[in-house]
Write a structure and sequence with these properties.
The protein is mainly α and 405 residues long. 79% of the residues lie in helices and 0% in strands. Helix 3 runs antiparallel to helix 15 (328-356), helix 10 runs antiparallel to helix 11 (242-270) and helix 10 runs antiparallel to helix 16 (359-371). The two termini are 17 Å apart.
Length: 405
């Protein structure tokens, strides 16, 4: 039987579309942050403070995602959360002042965080059923969506399109598309034992996952800083025009998309530890290039290397978290609450440090954290239960095809 004839192929394609939609929203908003900054007259420190609020919204809402999936089923929960995310996405550009902007970003972060937990839990479920790595490819589709969103944002910025119009039309279109593709995603309730009690409203990660969270912290900090500050860095630090500054976000997401789409093959061949250590070295080199750049082109190359280096880390973190307990959504929610809260704080930390020193110093911190992946990568070494889980999935797939176990 050919791989694309698998009964799980529609579910995998639907999940890939959901990941791409989520990424398109992130990429679109990131490219219009300079517009929002100029429209509201915000300096780096005030913009960085505003970017704390997506982290606050996500940290409060992420633990609720597992409970929503348990109560309503993952398909219905994902469908409703996608509509909520699209509605929240349009609000930051409509904000009349910094206070309303903070509230709008908090709502956007809450919705984005809950969608993130549900779609990653479904990704782990489908990966286990297939018995082979797909999480890097799914996150590659997220980066592809981010690339598409940032490319359209680059065009809109280059032509001077009002961000309220651009983001409003994007939100309306994706609000129609998202629920439509959810009909093919798996409808999972609970975890490996659906009869067990629903997860608590706040899900802390198990102790064994804290080291995994440290790996994710380093990668997501670098990713968040690059995604949200690359355009601002070129515009404010190096004097690039708005179109070229927005294009830097596109270069960043392009390398991430390419690396993640190829990441499953790399991980299967070299293993997660070697892949993450090599990525950390590449990301650290990119950060050093950003810090020392004296023109837009070297800085864009540095941001591209940061994206390339951290690309496969987050998929591996989610995959490891999803296998650390009987309820993937609960485990992912707990780890994501720590990792993404820290990562979403990264843009704010970059802004505050830039206000006190400079953006170059801020990306020196990013470089150090990227280098930290070289030391922390050992936490992703597969546990003894992982091969057995894959073997069980292979046996299930073989039985479904008519073969014996």
């Amino acid at each position: 039987m050919r791989r694309h004839d698998s009964p799980l192929s529609p579910a995998r394609r639907a999940l890939a579309a959901v990941f791409a939609l989520h990424g398109a929203l992130s990429g679109s908003l990131a490219t219009r942050l300079p517009w929002i900054q100029d429209h509201l007259g915000l300096g780096p420190g005030r913009l960085g403070l505003a970017l704390v609020f997506p982290a606050l919204g996500a940290s409060c809402a992420m633990p609720l995602a597992a409970r929503l999936g348990h109560r309503f089923g993952s398909r219905a929960a994902l469908r409703g959360l996608l509509v909520l995310l699209c509605a929240a996405f349009a609000l930051p550009a409509l904000s009349p002042g910094p206070v309303v902007l903070c509230a709008a970003l908090a709502g956007y972060g809450a919705a984005a965080g809950m969608v993130d937990v549900v779609m990653n839990a479904l990704g782990v479920e489908v990966e286990d059923r297939l018995g082979r790595s797909i999480m890097s490819g799914l996150h590659g589709m997220w980066s592809t969506g981010t690339l598409a969103g940032s490319a359209l944002g680059t065009l809109a910025a280059h032509h001077g399109t009002d961000a309220r119009v651009h983001l409003g039309l994007t939100a309306a279109g994706l609000a129609l598309l998202g629920p439509a593709v959810c009909r093919w995603v798996p409808d999972v309730r609970g975890g490996t034992d659906p009869a067990q009690d629903p997860p608590p409203r706040f899900a802390l990660p198990p102790r064994s996952a804290l080291a995994i969270g440290a790996v994710g912290f380093c990668a997501v900090f670098a990713e968040g800083a690059g995604l949200d500050w690359s355009a601002v860095y070129l515009r404010r630090q190096l004097g690039a025009d708005p179109g070229l500054a927005a294009a830097c976000t596109t270069a960043f997401t392009c390398t991430m998309a390419a690396a993640r789409l190829a990441g499953d093959t790399v991980v299967r061949r070299f293993g997660p530890v070697t892949a993450v250590r090599a990525g950390g070295a590449v990301a650290a080199a990119g950060g050093a290039l950003v810090v020392t750049a004296r023109g837009p082109v070297p800085a864009m190359a540095g941001f591209a290397l940061i994206g390339l280096g951290v690309a496969v880390v987050v998929p591996l973190v989610f995959a490891a978290a999803g296998r650390s307990g009987p309820q993937p959504a609960r485990a992912i929610a707990g780890v994501a609450t720590i990792v993404y809260t820290s990562g979403l704080v990264a843009p704010a930390a970059v802004g505050q440090l830039a206000a006190a020193t400079s953006l170059s110093v801020s990306f020196g911190l990013v470089t150090l954290l990227a280098a930290g992946l070289l030391l922390a990568a050992g936490a992703l070494r597969p546990a003894g239960d992982a091969p057995r889980a894959v073997e069980r999935a292979r046996r299930t797939r073989s039985t479904a095809r008519g073969g014996g176990p």
